[in-house]
Structure formats: structure tokens, C-alpha cells
## 1
Amino acid sequence: MKLFYRKEGSGTPLVVVHGLYGSSDNWLNIGKRLAEKHTVYMIDQRNHGRSPFSEEHTFDAMKEDLYEFFETHQIGKATILGHSMGGKTAMWFAADYPEKVEKLVIADIAPKNYMLLKEDSQFFLHRNILLAMQDIDFTEIKTRNDVEERLAEKIDDKRIRQFLLKNVAKDKETKLYKWRINVEVLYDNLDEIVSGVNKSWLDDRIPITSYPVIFIRGMKSRYILPEDEKLIKEIYPDATIVDIPEAGHWLHAEQPKKFMKAVMLCC
């Protein structure tokens, strides 16, 4: 699949892989800063942003999309910065193509099955978000504020609503607003998005030591818990974990200066 991307700067390659509901747009400020030292590629993963939509949304597919991107742009080896779902894509890609990885920087996701958290699983949060997104009838929408009002009926967290609104775009042909993510397909594949790229997927490769791995954790997020440190070290014995105070899961948007400082130290 030919992915949409943005490119900034010059120097050693660095590829940014966004998370669920994200896009390259969300990483422009970070990318421009990183471009002081690197050639930065910010991709839109399949079913997100300006990349093609597909009925398939698996980590195998996203891994191969990333490999095709490396080949198309003749990237021999790169640092990969992946957030959330993009972090899992990056870990899975690196496991299969270690020769392509200079360094792995994973933002606020662990290599674990989040479905195992049961009632605390992020599955239910994302299911409710995607259901709320599917329920919006864009023929009734006149402004982005209308979208937020509809979302607010089912999503209490204003930060989440504001993040989702970045995916609202106007269709050039119909002149109606629309989602720039493939909401229905993401909903259908939510089980894999939440559970995939866990220790059992990586068992035949453990321990992974062929490239440096850094995890950046938001201290107000529950995606990398204290007990996950042991799991991370089992898979990546030399991994470093960097904490960002006062940051939740979307740490690059909530604490951009602190996040940037952490990434610059890694890269």
C-alpha cells in the first residue's frame, strides 16, 4: 500500500508512526524539531489520514506497509518513533526486519495484550469512541462544532473529543464533512488493535537486543503500568524507560516540550 507521508529536514532517517485516530498532521511540530538532526518521515497508516482505506487492518498488514515504505523511499536503516498503535506496528516491524532499525522509540504502549485487563481494558474505551463516531450523521452536520456536540453526548473527555475532531474534513465532491479515518473497519478490527503484538507474538525472538529500545511513558496514562516494566525487560533486556510527568496517553500533544526533550535525548 502506498502510504501518504510528510517529509522534513535532512540527516539520518527517522520515521514517525502515529497511533489510533492519529495522522502525520499530529506530528508536524515534533517532526520539524527532529528535522534539525534527521530526515523525518511522518506517515499516515492505512485507514488513517490521507492514506488509502482498506478492509484489512492488522499488524501484519501495517508492518508490511512500513516495509514497503522503506523500500520505496530507499531507507536502508532508520530510527522509528511509534506512538500507541504505531508503537506496536514499529515493534512488530522491528522484530521481522531488525536490519532496518537503528533505534526503536516507543511512546506510551507496552508489548502486551490489553484485552487481558478485562473491565479495565482500553478495548471498551475505544469501542465507545468508535461507536460514537459511527453514530454521527454527517448529512446533519454544518460545522465542526456540531460534530463536537454530538460526540459530547457519548464522550465525556474533552481532550479526546478535541483529538478526534482533527479527523474531520470536508469532502471536495459532496461538500459534506466526513471522517478522515475508516471508522467501521477500525471498529471491526479493534480486538487485534488492542490485543496484538504481545509477548506471545515475540516469544521466538526473545531476548531482543539487536537495536536499542526506549519507551517513553506518560505518568498519568495507564498504558505502561509499573508491573509492565518486568515484561518490557524480559523482551528487551537493555530497554530504557523514560517518564513524562503530567502527561497522559497522548503525551506528545499534552506535554510537547517535555516529550520533545525526551525524544531528543534518545535520538
Note: The chain has two domains: 5-112+197-266, 118-188.
## 2
Amino acid sequence: MVTKKVKKKKNASLDSSQAQNDGGEIKKKVPHQTVQDDREKIRVLQGTKEEMVKTLFEAGAHFGHVARRWNPKMEKFLHSKKGGVHIFDLEKTVDCIEEACGALTKWMSEGKTIALVGTKRQAKEIIRSEADRLKLPFVVERWLGGSITNWQQMKTRIDRLIKLKVDRDAGAFKGFTKKERLMFDREIAKLERQFGGLSSLKAAPNVIVVVDIKKERTAVKEAKMRGVKVVALVDSNADPELVDYPIPMNDDATSAVELVVRKLTEAIELGLKKKTVSN
């Protein structure tokens, strides 16, 4: 009887938290957790510091990028290195989360406008979900240059979107041809995709909450130029000095991103309640 040899998979010795792409670079592989309608069924980042660290660890928040791609300015937030990948000190991460939450609650209670920004796949769903829940402005598609630095021009496009939707709902397009109505619908769809999340804004936001400052570098740069405060999830390959309140953690793990974004928006919600009471 001939027994076939089972060929071992290449790189089978890698830790379960790692994987390699075709270029041979180690990439993070973490559990996925999706947003559910029933919030009580979703893990919440709460409890003692030790409990929060445990929850973040289980969500894969501790994995940084491959060590050779790190930003030395992140050194103070790192615990160690394992298998060529940096590991975050989650106790420091929790401290940063608490500081950011305190600032967000204060800003919201003072009437500041806070926008959520996250265009990467791991952030889109939770950003849109929490923004809709709290009626916050948000960006989940590409950040358009000038959204902060050229606000007046952006506002004209937002006003155009609002007017078109009002006219459509009022039946103002009935007198146009089918082709013309189709063109209006396409324009609305395009503007909605680009500006829909910001349509509630009367002026540029005072604060932005960002997932992945390397991907959203334009938003962070514009905020810095205009004195807009930035709270952001910052991975080991990014510069924490670009933002006011960096949260050092894995910004590629969907479940970890969801936990932290939800924690931040709960702080915003608390500030909103304090603002309502004071009024």
C-alpha cells in the first residue's frame, strides 16, 4: 500500500495570530466581530482596568505591525515583541482610552461638534452605526480634501444635496423628463455618497474621532492646520504626536475597533446628556 506524504504548509510554524501575504510580510490575523442590532449581546469595554485589558486582549487589540515597520515614537506604548510583531501594553491603552473619553464627554457637554471618521473596512460599519444612533456627522467613504480647510466650498455642495432632496420629496421634479429626473437622482446619489454623513453640519467640526491615522492622513493634516482636536486609534507604524489623544492599539482588528469606537461614542453620549441637563 502506497502512503501519500502530506506536505507541510509553508510557514505553519507561525503563531495563530499571524499570517503571511504573497510578499512574505507577516500580517495580523485577528477574530472578527460584527455589529449587531441588539447592543446587549455585544461585548462592552467596561469594568475594572484588568477586565478592560482582558476584553481588549481577547479582541486582538494588542497586536502591532511587523517590528521593522514601526514608528519609534510609539515605543512608550509597546510592551514587547513576539514573532517579529510588536505587542502593545494594553494597560497604557486603557489609560489612553479613559483620557480620550473624558475629553470627549467634556467637549460634547460644552456643545462642541464631533465627527466620526473611518473609511477602512474594519471601521465603516461601527462608525456609521454609532453616528446614526447619536445623530453625529461622519465619513465612511473617502475623505474629501478641503472638508475642514475649505469648508465654505464643501458647504455649497452639502447645501446642493439638501436642496435636491427637498425638491425631490416635494415633487418638484415631476415637470421634468424621465431622463432629467434620472440625472437628478444620480446627482443626489453621488452627493449623498460624498457628503451625506456631513449634511447635518453648519460649520466644520471642532473634533474628529479617527480610526487609522495613516489611512486618514488628509483628515488629520487638515485638523492640525485648523486647530481641530483629534482623538484617534493609532497603530505601531504611525506617529502618535500627530493627534491630541492617541489610543495605541491594533487598528486592523474589527472586534477591537468596534469595542473602542463604542466606548468613545458612549463617552460622547454621556456628554450629550450632560449638555441636555444643563440646558
Note: The beta strands are 18-20, 26-28, 63-66, 78-82, 85-88, 114-117, 138-139, 207-211, 229-234, 245-248.
## 3
Amino acid sequence: MQKVTIPALHQMKRDGRKIVGVVAWDYQIAQLIDRAGVEIISVGDTVGINLWGQPSPLEVTMDQMVLVCQAVRRGTERALVSVDFPFGPLQEGVDSAIRAAIRLVKEAGADMIKLDGAAAFPEAVRALEKAGIPVFAHFGITPQTALRYGVDYAAMQKGAQVPAEMTEQLVAEAKLLEEAGASLLDFQNSGPIVGPAVTAAVKIPVIGGFGGGPWLDGRMRMAHAAIGYAASAADSTADAYANVAKITLEAIGAYATDVREGRHIRGQVPT
């Protein structure tokens, strides 16, 4: 099994082959994702909201990100493991960012560090690249960005035309991050107009998570969203790749029935 490398991802872009990324937070899921042959496993700070029920991603701590990344690292052999900074180290300055990144590489086993809002911190991207730590740089269109250009955010997500100056600005940000040494870009809400323009403007791969599309070099999706793991998925009619929540609800219900009716439970050898 050949380990995925950043040069290999750059070659995939040159060859026109799509890069597959999945967000994961635990050892078991990481093993399955790695076995499926994806290129990137991203340990996102969304773990706080989606797995632990925290009301805000701002509550996630550095210690928690280290612990979660360690679990994913143990379950991963082939894919590149990227990990998000929690809120704080990047905003506190370059020295803080370097210390945090070194800890995530040494203690958590990360191959790459993902910086949210990286376009506002090119000096941190440069410093990490100089320190030999690959950067997955996030940027893109937020509700605040859309408001600045007088664009209807909801309409834009559905493919509405965006101003030429917005496209020019995002292309400039992508080029800035590439020049600063970013290894990959995570383009939020790329859309079918700006997305292709940015993808063509840089030599490094442009991956889309939230609001991405097939016009980018690859896609990123939460494993728990793809398989319908969240409790809310049990009642959802969305076209996910599976509905693990519904299966789990039915399975635990069947287990409870067996226990209450005095039957042997499934998967356990009777004694």
C-alpha cells in the first residue's frame, strides 16, 4: 500500500484526476476510509459540534484536537492526515501558530495542518512552510464576503452570477496562498463561476468542502454526513450514501426487544 504524498496530489491535479477527501474523528471510521482508498483524511474542528454536541466550534481546545487526531492517525496507513487548528493559535500570531503546528505534527501525527481563513494570515502560511510543515489553506466565500460585494449569498450558492471583482479577488487570494507556500487549497462555496477560475489560476490542488462542486480538483465530505450517522438522519429523506442512524435505531430497538423477551442476543455465543 503506497503512502499518499503531497507531490502525488500535485501530480493528480496535473493529470486531471480528482482527489478524494473525507473528514473523520475516530479510529474505526479512519480505518474504513483509509481502506476505501481516499487520498486525504481531515480531522476537523467540527468534531465539537457534530460528535460532542458542543454549541460552537470555538469551544474546541488544542488538547482535544491532539487527542482526536491521534485516534485518526492510528487508524490510517495510506491517506494523508490533515488536522485543523482550533480557534486561537492562528489568531494569536505566527509564533503561536508554529508552536501549535509542531505539537500537532509531533504529538498527534498529522501530515498537514489546515488553517481556516488562511487568506488573512499569509505570514503564518509562509512560516509553517519554512518550518517544513505542509499547509492546507482554507479560504472562500462566506456570508460576510458576499455582503461586501452586494451578492445574495443563498442565490450565489445555487449558481447565481457573481461580480467580476469578487472572482478577481478570490483568484488573487488563491495565488497569494500558493506563493506563500500552501500545499493545497480548501475553497469554501466555490460555485460554478469562481471555482473553475481559481482552479485554473493555481498549480496546487483546489479542494472543495462546504459548497464545492465537480469543477474543483477534488472534494471533501464529512464521513458522518456521507453515511447518515447523525441522530437527525434517522428521520431524513436526504439522498445520502447510507443511513447508518436509521439502521442503528432499528438495531438497538431489536436488541432491546430480545433482552426484554428473554432471548439470546445476536452476535454473542450462547453459554
Note: Residues 6-226 form a domain with the TIM Barrel fold (CATH 3.20.20.60).
